[in-house]
Specification:
The chain is mainly alpha-helical and 198 residues long. The protein has a single domain (27-180), classed as Growth Hormone, Chain: A (Up-down Bundle), CATH 1.20.1250.20. The chain is built from 9 helices and no strands. The chain has helices at residues 3-8, 11-24, 31-42, 46-70, 76-95, 100-125, 131-160, 162-177, 187-191. Helix 2 runs antiparallel to helix 8 (162-177), helix 5 runs antiparallel to helix 6 and helix 5 packs antiparallel against helix 8. It is globular and about 50 Å long. The two termini are 17 Å apart.
Length: 198
């Protein structure tokens, strides 16, 4: 096994992948709670909030699909770093959103960043030797993060308002950015040279 393959199979890489995946979920796990807060605290209509969340999810799906197609041709580490930076900036922009239109624009940016991060996580997870265990660990991380976020969201909203959720998501995205060094530039850099005849 090459040094690069050992690196992508390391526990630190798995931790980085889990961190990137949970922040890529954005508001997905707390949308019912957050939607109610937008109505109660800012007076946004349910229709407007539905459009905001639908836009974020649609952007996630589009960015994930297009990014997955681009994986063989791009530097994945830099791509992940750029996508996480978009997530940080999008969450900061969400803090300043005073209308459904500005919130929609901010969450659109976050959705694009989230989908791109997801694609990098899936592509990197596919390089690991124990793929089943890797995806199981990532899913477990998603569920644990969801439990923590859902249980703490009401307290955060009461203590700091809607902005506290976006501050948390922005900080977590910045922390996940630190794990970009664990992402191989390309598949070949993790797999090493193919043996003759392959």
């Amino acid at each position: 096994m090459t040094t690069s393959l050992q690196s992508v199979d390391s526990g630190r890489t798995l931790l980085a992948l889990c961190a990137m995946m949970v922040v890529s979920l954005g508001t997905l796990q707390v949308q019912p709670i957050l939607g109610g807060a937008f109505v109660d605290q800012l007076g946004f209509s349910l229709q407007a909030i539905g459009s905001v969340f639908a836009t974020e999810l649609s952007a996630m799906a589009l960015a994930c699909g297009l990014s997955a197609l681009a994986m063989p041709r791009i530097n994945r580490r830099r791509f992940a770093g750029a996508a996480l930076a978009v997530l940080v900036l999008g969450n900061l922009a969400s803090l300043q959103a005073g209308s459904p239109a500005t919130l929609l624009a901010a969450r659109l940016a976050c959705g694009l960043g989230s989908g791109a991060v997801m694609a990098v996580v899936y592509a990197t997870a596919a390089l690991r030797s124990s793929k089943d265990a890797t995806f199981a660990a990532i899913n477990a991380g998603n569920l644990l993060w969801g439990m923590l976020l859902v249980s703490s969201a009401p307290w955060l909203l009461k203590a700091g308002g809607i902005g506290s959720i976006f501050v948390l998501l922005g900080i977590c995205s910045a922390m996940a950015w630190l794990g970009c060094a664990r992402i191989p530039d390309r598949a070949a850099s993790a797999q090493g040279a193919a043996p003759p005849g392959c």
